[in-house]
Design a protein that fits this description.
alpha+beta, single chain, two-stranded antiparallel sheet
Length: 355
């Protein structure tokens, strides 16, 4: 670059020449970013994660109902129901697992699209997972698609699309058994904290109503009356609600227009009669299996006994057939016998289980 003589101001003082240093600024920013990553790698290796402690912290976090309610999502892909871990649970696991950097950044922009990079970096093993993708500045609506021009709308669209890729990156880094254990723990938290099932039904109906999903839609999806739901159904419906609310799936993927009328045809009596809740064999089997999974959550004999005492009326309401009711109770008794034989050494009686 040509050296220019320094200019002078009105007082005769020399003025530094103006230099266009865009490239220099960019180089400085890149150097700083590299230095920050190197420093993070050094700190991570100096303070390695304690996996046992991290696992306990994750399990403790999964006992929070607020996290458990948003821990999973589901959507339909053709005839298959796809379920998975939400970005909220993935972020919680990553924060407790430790020494992981993750996020996304916009690396380029065209006239009607953005190029985005989502990443997750395990600083201990120096393993980096990256997802590069393009987000079109376009939004589909019921009135048809439209182009997005407002800068805030563009950012929200990019952020929404990027979060899914960030979740994918995190789940590729974190051991699968840790993720699975956390997901199961959140499910157990929901099932054990439902409380009054009738109040929970009211909450479910009101929540779905805000999404334009009616009671008939819910019963069509369940393929039985909503009064017969069990905690496993509550967990599943919560997952569906979160998926629709967060835009991961559309309500049409779960709720078909004629599902309720198909359900009514499966009942031997009219749907408004007192015995209309008697399910078909297939539906009854599903309810029984859901109750069994609920029983399996409890690790102590006393906890199962308390569960039986508290939920006997609910089981009878959900399974009017006496043989079905007795099957669930017999399974609970077998579970208690198994836990007793496994050798709790009297510790179960000391555990304060809040059912």
């Amino acid at each position: 670059m040509e050296n220019l003589p320094p200019k002078q101001d009105e007082n005769g003082f020399s003025m530094a020449p103006v230099v266009h240093s865009g490239g220099a600024i960019q180089a400085v920013e890149q150097s700083r970013a590299v230095a920050e990553v190197q420093a993070a790698l050094v700190l991570a290796r100096a303070n390695p994660r304690d996996e046992s402690r991290a696992y306990n912290l994750i399990m403790q976090s999964c006992k929070r109902r607020s996290l458990a309610e948003t821990a999973t999502y589901s959507f339909r892909r053709g005839s298959e129901l796809v379920q998975g871990v939400s970005i909220r649970l993935a972020e919680t696991i990553a924060s407790k697992w430790g020494n992981i950097q993750y996020g996304f950044r916009e690396v380029g922009r065209g006239e009607d699209f953005s190029e985005v990079e989502a990443f997750a970096h395990d600083l201990e093993s120096n393993t980096r997972v990256v997802r590069l993708f393009v987000v079109k500045h376009w939004r589909d609506t019921k009135q048809g698609g439209k182009s997005i021009t407002a800068e805030r709308d563009k950012y929200e669209l990019v952020a929404n699309m990027a979060q899914r890729r960030v979740r994918s990156c995190l789940l590729e880094l974190i051991p699968g058994d840790i993720v699975e254990s956390a997901s199961n723990a959140c499910r157990a938290t929901l099932e054990s904290s439902i409380g009054d099932i009738n109040k929970k039904i009211e909450e479910i109906v009101k929540s779905f109503a805000t999404l334009g999903v009616s009671l008939d839609d819910l019963e069509g999806y369940l393929q039985r009356k909503i009064r017969s739901i069990v905690p496993a159904d509550v967990v599943n419906l919560t997952r569906v609600y979160v998926s629709i609310r967060d835009g991961i799936a559309d309500k049409s993927e779960f709720f078909k227009e004629n599902a309720k009328s198909d359900l009514n045809k499966r009942f031997d009596k009219q749907p408004d009669s007192p015995d209309a809740d008697i399910q078909t064999l297939e539906a009854r089997k599903k309810i029984i299996e859901d109750f069994k999974r609920e029983i399996d959550v409890y690790p102590h004999q006393n906890a199962v006994a308390n569960w039986k005492k508290k939920h006997a009326n609910r089981i009878e309401r959900a399974l009017p057939n006496e043989n079905d009711y007795l099957e669930v109770m017999a399974y609970a008794n077998d579970r208690m016998t198994f836990l007793q034989g496994r050798g709790n050494q009297g510790q179960a009686s000391k555990v304060n289980v809040n059912l």
